[in-house]
């Protein structure tokens, strides 16, 4: 290939490829997700203690919980699926070069040489792209250089060039490019669907975390109850021990109070162990086990479940259900999936149409080289020399054009695959309709159960409070009777155990109320706004 021709092809290749290459580089260098470091813990550490309330605990769960990070990756996958759906519309640039040397003995004088030696060099560059409206555009430029020792060559060497354009439009099937646009429509809708599903799953994770928080608070307060019971049993034992020394108590009667002290010590140790296990679960949810400073800090839970007066829901069951049906993202996701089904049905209907394509073509050719003098029936052709530039000039002057059109019809007598595709799309639409109905039933049930549990939790707190107060009065009365000698130590210890159980039940009732309120807010989808939490996409 001579130097001017090579420079011309290289320049054309650079002009066409530069913007496309830049676009490809920009698309290739995406911002992939990365593993986020644990954040937000240090600002809550004070004097070696990690202080937490429910609000800032859930904020840190939202930022640091590994399970939530894994859920967010689904959103990234959905967004990248949109990028993949654009692939049919990506422009393509192709370039090629071929050189062939051939030396062959000849059996005919018409070959122009006893041993024909020829060299053929060809190069081409092409560009193609499907437009968003469905048309396919193609452009190509090619050049060739041929030389041989044949005596019959008119040009030796000869230089040729050509440029061609084609434009294809579908007239029936895929006329508006529905087949390729559907993937993009589905992918963009799926981004919203996955976002709704991710919000739902993250909300469930937050509910689990909130329940863990209140269970840990309950375990902490149970230690106080068990410690108070132990202190009360210890006082009884000390009183009985003094009575034994004074001879006012039979030797065998002291074993009851002594046994009660041992039982309360065991219960206290079990409560402390449970609390430590609950703290470990809590620490993992906020990533404190990954941070050396937070790992060593003692967790202090600043919320007191008994500080809030339990109140029943202000909305009626019907109003609460209506609110949940309007705001629950699970229902939004299924409704959008039905929209995806409609896209697929439209695409399947389009596949059943005949295929009719109209293609228009236009091209131009040029020829140059060392023309050998010859005499033909048309006259004498003098010798001349011209280069690749002359061939290019002929090409772009369009003096030797090639043009035409092609109309191609494909009429399948039966298209079982497309019929099955349509049937599957209709089945999927029905499936999602049933899923939507089932989810609506589930939402109604969730609200009803949460409403019942919250109202019941309020009443249980009231009942447990009354029981605790009565148990306290009973212990006070029994202590006076025991001092007067009208009851046995066993009866006093039994009353003290009943008080401890009543206090434990009351604390559990308060904790259950907090958990029931979280479940109620989750059912109505008011949990995140109430806790000032935002699930960022």
Q: In whole angstroms, how far apart are the ends? A: 56 Å
Report the structural category. alpha+beta
The total count of helices amounts to: 12
Spell the H/E element sequence. HEEHHEEEEHHHEHHEEEEHEHHH
Q: Characterize the biggest β-sheet.
A: 7 strands, antiparallel
Can you identify the CATH class of the largest domain?
Mainly Alpha
Number of discrete domains: 2
CATH names the topology of the largest domain as: Outer membrane efflux proteins (OEP)
| CATH architectural type of the largest domain | Up-down Bundle
What is the total tally of β strands?
Answer: 12
Low-confidence segments, ≥5 residues, pLDDT <50? 1-6, 15-26
Summed over residues and divided by their number, the pLDDT gives a mean of 87
Beta-strand percent range:
15-25%
The fourth-level CATH homologous superfamily of the largest domain is: Outer membrane efflux proteins (OEP)
Residue share in helix: 55-70%
Oligomer: single chain
Radius of gyration of CA atoms, rounded to a whole number: 43 Å
